[in-house]
């Protein structure tokens, strides 16, 4: 039977559409990563990251780094919704590394292109802070000068942990950064946290707990990993009651 030109083109279009449909269907089956949160953490590792993407329901392992310097960890939690998995970062060195996932125990890794990166940073150093005390009623703005603040990619989630009883987390606000110092790649930044309310001295219910107290403050640049309270980086704040506060 003679095939007319129009019919031939119609068959060709159907074939092309079929090939495209099959290609898309198979492509959709592979795990893909759209983003991770947080995007950075301390070099000591232990950051709990959430990996967002598609076709993640069967993912069982995460890989950090570039071959041969890679570390493979088991997924901490997979809700099986195909859209997210949870992994814990291993220890690393400062800088960005790619993150990949596997659903066949490490035989193949995804994504194979358009990599998503996690960045490690060193423990930030608090150069100075002021004031060192304030009323137990809270609202004192404590300002820190921090080395390495901008090494984090999650500074919008930076926070202070006041180790009161119970501990209280306060958001940190970036104020400004100084010029980069000669011989370094870091720019010290000023950032502030508001001291929480501990109690009111005249409150008959909480009066017995409203004594002057000094507590440590820990700093996080990603809202999750807090600085280690070593002696050279120790920060303390004194909550004063209304009789001792000047």
Overview of the molecule:
With 246 residues, the chain is mostly beta strands. It has 1 helix and 16 strands. The protein has one helix spanning 5-28; strands at residues 32-37, 40-42, 48-54, 61-66, 69-74, 84-88, 95-102, 116-121, 125-130, 133-135, 141-147, 159-162, 168-177, 189-194, 213-220, 236-240. The strands form 3 sheets. It has an 8-stranded mixed beta sheet, with no helix packed on it. It is elongated. The N and C termini lie far apart (103 Å). The mean pLDDT is 86.
H/E series = HEEEEEEEEEEEEEEEE
Low-confidence stretches: none
Strand content: 35-45%
- Mean of pLDDT: 86
The strand line-up of the biggest sheet is: 9-11-14-13-12-15-16-10
Oligomer: single chain
What is the share of helical residues? under 10%
Shape: elongated
Number of strands: 16
How many helices in DSSP terms?
Answer: 1
The rounded distance between the terminal residues' Cα atoms is 103 Å
């Amino acid at each position: 039977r003679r095939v007319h030109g129009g019919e031939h083109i119609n068959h060709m279009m159907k074939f092309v559409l079929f090939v495209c449909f099959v290609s898309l269907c198979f492509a959709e089956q592979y795990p893909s990563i759209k983003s991770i949160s947080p995007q950075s953490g301390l070099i000591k590792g232990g950051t709990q990251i959430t990996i967002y993407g598609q076709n993640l329901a069967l993912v069982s392992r995460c890989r950090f780094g570039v071959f041969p310097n890679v570390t493979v960890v088991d997924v901490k939690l997979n809700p099986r919704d195909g859209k997210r998995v949870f992994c814990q970062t291993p220890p690393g060195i400062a800088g960005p590394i790619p993150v990949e996932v596997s659903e066949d125990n490490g035989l193949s890794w995804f994504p194979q292109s358009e990599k998503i990166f996690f960045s490690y940073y060193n423990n930030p150093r608090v150069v100075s802070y002021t004031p060192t005390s304030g009323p137990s009623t809270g609202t004192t703005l404590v300002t820190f000068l921090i080395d390495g603040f901008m090494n984090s990619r999650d500074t919008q989630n930076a926070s202070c942990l006041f180790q009161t009883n119970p501990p209280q987390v306060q958001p940190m606000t970036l104020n400004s950064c100084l010029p980069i110092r000669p011989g370094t790649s870091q720019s010290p930044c000023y950032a502030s946290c508001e001291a929480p309310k501990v109690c009111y001295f005249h409150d008959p219910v909480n009066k017995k707990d409203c004594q002057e107290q000094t507590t440590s403050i820990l700093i996080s640049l990603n809202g999750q990993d807090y600085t280690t309270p070593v002696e050279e980086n120790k920060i303390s704040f004194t909550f004063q009651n209304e009789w001792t506060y000047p």
